Amino acid sequence: MNEIIQLNILQFSLIYLLLILVLILMKKSKISQSKLLLLGTFRMSLQLVLAGFILTAIFENPHPLFTIAYVAAMVIFSITRILRKNPWLNSSFRWSVSLSLTLTGLFILGYFTQIVIGVSLFNPQYTIPLAGMIIGNAMTGITLALKTFHESLTSGRNRMETLLNLGASPKQILLPDVNRALETALLPTMNSMLGMGIIALPGMMTGQILSGTSPSTAILYQIAIMVAITAAVCLAVFCSLHFGYRSLYNQRNQLNLPR
Amino acid sequence: MKELFRTLGLAVNGIHYPDMITEENKITFLTGPSGCGKSTLFRILNGTLDPEEGSVLYLGQDVRELDPLTHRREVSLVSQSVFLFPGTIRENFRQFYQFRELPEPDTEKIHFFLSLCCLVADPDTDCTTFSGGEKQRVYLAVFLSLRPRVLLLDEPTSALDTTTSRLLLKNLAEYSKKEGISLLMISHDPGLADEYAESRILFGEGCRITGEGGGSHE
Q1: Do A159 and A56 fall within a single domain?
Q2: pLDDT tens string A167-198
Q3: How many domains does chain A contain in total?
Q4: ipTM value of the model?
Q5: How many CB atoms lie under 10 A from the CB of residue A50?
Q6: Distance from B97 to chain A by nearest Cα, in Å?
Q7: Which residues in chain A touch residue B72, judged by CB atoms under 8 angstroms apart?
Q8: A121 and A47 within one domain
Q9: Which of A8, A93, A119, B69 gets the highest tally of CB atoms within 10 A of its CB?
């Protein structure tokens, strides 16, 4: 393997020049989001630099508590983001989403590190990057599922009320929408698996190869992480919706739909 | 006549309902200005909404003590806003029946209930091509075919012309008498009420009962 070429600051800063192209195209297409692009780039850079410092410190002084704290921060950030994007969720639904993301994410992470790789769950070098991918994708999946489910609830209100008036149970009425939302959330992950390796080399694999890992090892990790992500998205969305939708009706089978 | 519903001190969403009684096997009309809580009262009667105060007795039993799904199947509410599944009349019957865990009705039965609702149409016609009035009649036909004991009809003729409205009401009145179905109907058409009401509850401002026909409130 060739040794990795270290980027100096000047080389690194050249990449930002590409953003000028994006800004020109946005201006030409009358997309008034240049502020968002700049803010996004700034925040992404700052957050990653900070993450780099923190990760370096953790890797140099490994301790289970640091790993736990980092993963906990990821989980809390993801939950906050989901809840902020879905203010229509009632309190029980919020708990369902939060617990589902936490427990399913940790379960997949534990299985991957302890059983598949055979390293400790508290090993920061493995656990932190894997947690980022698993929890991040589960967060995206849940957000998409909740968006789809909420759209079904608002656009299908008349259907739901009619069926309720007729004597159908809320479970019968809501389950088709729950299943549709799960399907919608899973599609992007499954589609990305179809094109993987042909259309694109995924980020994690690219990163590993660039940093000197042999492609065959990088590929095995990539396959494993893709399967883990699919399982995490499916489990987290399934649990969030299946425990959450029950909070939309009471014991008297009356619907309490969000406006 | 047997007592069907009795309401006691009902209040919901700031509306206080006067106590009232309706009788079984009668056609009871509820009339009054929009927004006085008639549709909300129907939701309370079939148990899809609980009152904040007071109670409703159905055949002498508190609605809250009854199994909600069994009660709604017995006391069906045909709401004002029509909902049909995309597809043919037959597919609509099939889908509604599936939600009630019932086998699909045969063509003869579909024809019977369509004609009862004054609609001459092939069951394999796509409902999406129908006018508002036609959709309303398919919707009503589905509910009627499920043989409830009580039908709560919220403006069932709002999308129909006067002639069809009267014909539909005539058919409904005859069929309900024959089958022992009690009808409670919200209508803004005073002519219909004059012609078909056996009992009448008039709601005034703030939901005060201002009159009746047939001794239906206390």
Answers
A1: no
A2: 999 999 999 999 999 999 999 888 888 877 77
A3: 2
A4: 0.90
A5: 10
A6: 10
A7: 164-167
A8: no
A9: A93
Whether residues A91 and A25 fall in one domain:
no
Chain A to chain B Cβ contacts (< 8 Å): 52
CA distance A67 to B204: 68
| B47, B77, B81 ranked by CB distance to A158: nearest | B81
What structural domains and CATH numbers belong to chain B?
A: 3-213 (3.40.50.300)
pLDDT digit string, tens, across residues A85-121: 999 999 999 999 999 999 999 999 999 999 999 999 9
Contact (Cβ atoms closer than 8 angstroms) between residue B150 and residue B181 = yes
How many residues in chain B? 218
* The residue count for chain A: 259
Take residue B40 and report the two structure tokens written for it: 């909300």
Name the token pair of A247: 């909070």
Same domain, A57 and A82: no
What is the residue whose two structure tokens read 């909740």? Answer: A146
Rounded Cα distance, A195 and A240, in Å: 28
